[in-house]
Design goal:
Bound molecules: 5'-O-[(S)-ethoxy(hydroxy)phosphoryl]adenosine
CATH topology of the largest domain: Rossmann fold
Largest sheet: 7 strands, mixed
Number of helices: 19
Strand order of the largest sheet: 5-4-17-16-18-19-20
Radius of gyration: 24 Å
Structural class: alpha/beta
Number of strands: 30
């Protein structure tokens, strides 16, 4: 039995053997799972050929590891405490045996509605238990799930559904989100017009709203589940069969469908959860993310379930009915392990100390953060006000592409250091490189963060475009996976992530590609040219700012352009990509070859006017003065 890492010495020796005796290390880890057939080789392939495989030849079903084996050992243990948006509504809990029943029913529904092994099934739902059951049911029948966050627009949903050619789309009538109601089914109806692959839409009745149902296409999921059998034989999958596709934004082009496979992802989600959080048998874990993001995949749907842990699943938002909600939920369920994003911490801190003080948080043992760099002030507040200085904080660095946590302290085992992700997990070999791609040896160091060798949880490809996968992540620094992040390493080898070094903006922990936003802005008939950059934002981490050259140079003619652009962005991408600021410029600084100098635009947006570097080689240095004036005047 491969145990959890419980001391610094054990971390050091595990880390060492994970890299130097990789095969035996990972085969011991894998031995703790349920397999239908053992692997032929633990690991094969490399970044050059981009043919990475883990546990190749093995057969398994990940849900047997999430559910069946726990049902054998502790059927009546609570798996999920589901907390509804409105605290006065009925909260529901499910034991491991009950989750298995629900997942079996859902699996039968999928198969009865034509889903076969390998088919893609898209979810556009809110955080209700059926989303979790549906995702696991896909894995049980061998279908590939693709969850789209319920905050994306119809157009964004359509793009994702069409890209992965989903056969089935599953949604709910409407979603409760704080005081708001999101008309999910209506958005689906709008999205689906251009999605030829979709044969059926299953609709879960959450709010009881009257929604139009298209004859022959739309079916109430509640009815199907009520009639379905609660037994289902899990489909045997190959280790490298795809498990899910999840879309994320990059610096160029349309969102990319990162594809993760079964066995390696399972091992990674499970091991990282176990070692980082150190949740015990009677602990209650709560990750406040949405299943629409990778954090919700790895640390709600899979990691905790693989470890047989009790967890809270939350439908609502941190500020409804008031900003004490997160802490009330921690109090209500006696949460011991709480995992959230820095943006939520900052937003709740800004609401005043009375909210966090009125809840009893004595059950908390471990706090986690993810999604963006955490600033010192937010770290201290989390540590003092929430953790009462007795809870280690795990600052977990990872990405949609990495499948699970890569760099983090292990709660209570290796030291937490404010604002530092700290040390790589077993199997992770981080390297810092300079802009020429040369490895920076020694400490301290600062550079572009790369990973030097394959790890089990890494995405295997971009769905339908392996070449794009190579181009995006493996061509900048050949032989290495480039993360797009910058990092510093201190004297003791601890990593501190400094943020994206590419054209990705991290807004409230959500990745927004500048090119995607620019594409929408360029559609506006009055826009000649636009450049979008991120700037420091107190609550969101980064805000979005657009420099725009309008056709009309007369300012009064451009009134309302900000609102109009935001309407367009909301329609094409979703409200998360809305602009915080715009600057109407006459010209944008460019290189002699005509490329917009984003570096300068970012500095100006951040108010760092004296750190622009040498601008004399620009095609139009005078453009810099003019945008500085405009920004100063705002
Ligand atoms: C950022 C979220 C600093 C980083 C799991 C990364 C972080 C991007 C941290 C991935 C952290 C994530 N400290 N930055 N602890 N965690 N990031 O794909 O820029 O939504 O590249 O995955 O979030 O975002 P994604």
């Amino acid at each position: 039995m491969h145990n959890r890492i419980e001391s610094v010495e054990q971390y050091k020796s595990s880390y060492h053997s994970s890299l130097n005796e990789s095969e035996s290390y990972w085969s011991k880890v894998a031995d703790t799972f349920t397999w239908k057939k053992e692997w032929n080789s633990v690991t094969s392939g490399n970044f050059e050929e981009l043919n990475v495989k883990w546990f190749d030849g093995a057969k398994l079903n990940i849900t047997e590891n999430c559910l069946d084996r726990h049902v054998q050992n502790h059927p009546d243990k609570i798996a999920i405490y589901w907390e509804p948006n409105d605290p006065s509504d009925l909260a529901i809990s499910f034991t491991y045996a009950e989750v298995l029943e629900q997942v079996n029913k859902f699996s039968n529904v999928l198969v009865e509605n034509g889903v076969n092994k390998g088919d893609r099934v898209c979810f556009y739902m809110s955080m209700i238990p059926e989303l979790l059951f549906g995702v696991l049911a896909c894995a049980r029948v061998g279908a590939v799930h693709s969850v789209v966050f319920g905050g994306f627009s119809a157009k964004a949903l359509a793009g994702r559904v069409s890209d992965c050619k989903a056969k089935l789309l599953i949604t709910n009538d409407q979603a409760y989100r704080g005081t708001k109601i999101i008309p999910l089914k209506k958005i689906v109806d709008e999205a689906i017009q251009g999605c030829e692959s979709v044969e059926k839409v299953l609709v879960f009745n959450r709010t009881g709203a009257e929604v139009p149902m298209t004859e022959g296409r739309d079916i109430w999921l509640n009815d199907l589940l009520a009639q379905a059998s609660d037994t289902f034989r899990p489909v045997e999958m190959n280790a490298e069969d795809p498990l899910f596709i999840l879309y994320t934004s990059g610096s160029t082009g349309t969102p990319k469908g990162l594809q993760h496979t079964t066995a390696g992802y399972m091992v990674w989600a499970s091991e990282t959860f176990k070692n980082v959080f150190q949740a015990g048998k009677n602990d209650v874990y709560w990750c406040s993310a949405d299943i629409g993001w990778i954090t919700g995949h790895s640390y709600i749907a899979y990691g905790p379930m693989l470890n047989g842990v009790t967890q809270v699943m939350f439908e609502g938002v941190p500020t409804f009915p008031d900003p004490s909600r997160f802490w009330q939920v921690c109090d209500k369920y006696k949460v011991s392990h709480f995992y959230t994003a820095p943006t939520a911490i900052r937003a709740l801190e800004a609401c005043g100390p009375e909210h966090v003080e009125k809840a009893d948080l004595s059950s908390l043992k471990v706090l986690g953060t993810v999604g963006e760099p955490i600033n010192e002030d937010a770290w201290n507040w989390y540590n003092e006000k929430v953790g009462k200085k007795k809870c280690p904080i795990v600052d977990t660095w990872w990405q949609t592409e990495t499948g699970g946590i890569m760099i983090s302290s292990l709660a209570g085992v290796t030291p937490s250091i404010p604002c530092h992700a700290t040390l790589p997990l077993p199997g992770v070999e981080p390297v810092l490189v300079n802009d020429k791609g040369e490895k920076i040896e020694g400490n301290p160091a600062q550079g572009n963060l790369c990973i030097n060798r394959p790890w089990p949880g890494m995405a295997r490809t971009i769905y339908g475009d392996h070449e794009r996968y190579r181009q995006t992540y493996f061509s900048t620094y050949p032989g290495k996976y480039f993360t797009g992040d910058g990092a510093r390493r201190d004297d003791d080898g601890n990593y501190r992530i400094t943020g994206r070094v590419d054209d990705v903006i991290n807004v409230s922990g959500h990745r927004i590609g500048t090119a995607e936003v620019e594409d929408v802005i360029d559609e506006h008939p009055e826009v000649v040219e636009a450049a979008v950059v991120g700037f420091p934002h107190d609550i969101k981490g980064q805000g979005i700012m657009a420099y725009i050259i309008p056709k009309n140079t007369n300012d009064s003619d451009n009134e309302g352009i900000f609102e109009l652009l935001n309407e367009m962005i909301t329609k094409d991408i979703g409200p998360i990509a809305k602009l915080d600021r715009i600057v109407l410029a006459n010209d944008l600084p460019k290189t002699r070859s005509g490329k917009i100098m984003r570096r300068i635009l970012r500095k100006v947006a951040a108010g760092e006017f004296d750190q622009l570097g040498d601008i004399s080689t620009l095609l139009n240095p005078e453009a810099v003065e003019s945008i500085i004036e405009k920004v100063k005047a705002q």
